[in-house]
Design brief:
324 residues; alpha/beta; 7 strands; elongated
């Protein structure tokens, strides 16, 4: 009942006025009966009152209908504006999602992006190979003794390993030392870190040389074991790379040399099995070029230079080898 009154206020008012007019007419007729001298025609008054009530009711209904129509049109207009605004926003979001999806698909199936690793755990990849080839480019070993032991174990199983590390005589070692200094605005901090980095390079080289002697002994006893080749570059560090070939499958990790040691930076994993052939080939080409331009810096040649210029390097201990 209340809903009817709320939505049909005009008709309601008209009805109430009509009822009031009839009641008033009855009342007037009653008055005329008891007082004929009044001269009031009760039927005329009632009829006139009803017509007035109906007119008022119709006017109210008309105004209400006009208001409702305007209100509906206004709501439709606002609704259209809202829909259009949301449609444009949705299209923008869909374009962004489409672009991100296309980029993700391109990275995965175009370049072979296979994820992000906080630590590539080189030893895990080397130790799991029974036969294969490892290409390892870095500045120096994080844990030279453990790494060389793992490499020798892999070589016993027929894995070939190519190591490409920074030369202990490289001028760019000082550059790396400057950029990794805890406080680069403090000359003393920079100088101290440059010296520390030089000692780390020397200690890493010392361990490689010692374990390479073990490899030479192993090779004489069994020529069927894998090959170990080591060279040292003296150009800029570039970026750390680990390429692992096992049968027909090639995987690779690439890292960063920023203001922190590479072990504290994320590594990107690339896989040839999901479309990364071209990018991994680019990493291989990068390694091969760096390897080519380091042809004079073999372990034997650098060892001879060390014995000639810095024999103290050979006395470095494991405690002096820090993270790369």
């Amino acid at each position: 009942m209340l809903e009817f009154v709320k939505h049909h206020i005009g008709w309601t008012v008209a009805g109430l006025l009509a009822i009031a007019a009839i009641a008033f007419g009855v009342y007037v007729k009653y008055i005329g009966t008891i007082s004929p001298q009044t001269g009031i025609d009760p039927f005329f008054i009632a009829f006139e009152t009803i017509l007035s009530a109906l007119a008022v009711g119709l006017v109210i209904v008309f105004i209400q209908k006009i208001g409702e129509r305007y209100s509906v049109e206004e709501r439709i207009r606002e609704l259209k504006e809202t829909i259009e605004s949301e449609r444009e926003e949705l299209e923008a979001r869909m374009d962004d999602i489409r672009l991100r999806t296309e980029n993700a698909l391109q990275l995965k199936f175009g370049y072979g992006l296979d994820g992000i690793a906080d630590d590539p755990n080189e030893l895990k990849h080397i130790q799991r190979l029974k036969k294969g080839h490892v290409y390892w480019l870095n500045t120096l070993f994080r844990d030279a003794e453990r790494n060389m032991v793992a490499i020798l174990e892999a070589i016993k199983h027929g894995t070939n390993v190519d190591l490409l590390m920074m030369s202990p005589f490289s001028n760019y070692a000082d550059v790396r030392g400057r950029y990794t200094a805890p406080d680069y605005t403090n000359p003393d901090s920079v100088t101290s870190n440059m010296e520390s980095y030089g000692k780390q390079l020397a200690a890493s080289f010392s361990f490689m040389m010692t374990h390479y002697g073990q490899y030479e002994t192993m090779k004489k006893q069994d020529e069927n074991i894998g090959e170990l080749r080591i060279r040292f570059y003296d150009d800029p560090a570039g970026l750390p790379v680990l390429i692992v070939k096992s049968g027909e499958v090639t995987e690779a990790y690439s890292g960063f040399y920023l203001n922190s040691v590479s072990s504290q930076m994320p590594y990107i994993k690339w896989s040839e099995t999901i479309g990364g052939e071209a990018f991994i080939q680019n990493l291989e080409d990068y390694f091969e070029r760096k390897w080519h331009f380091s042809s004079e810096n073999t372990l034997e040649n650098v060892r001879a230079l060390v014995q000639e210029r810095k024999p103290e390097i050979l006395s470095q201990t494991a405690a002096e080898v820090a993270d790369t």
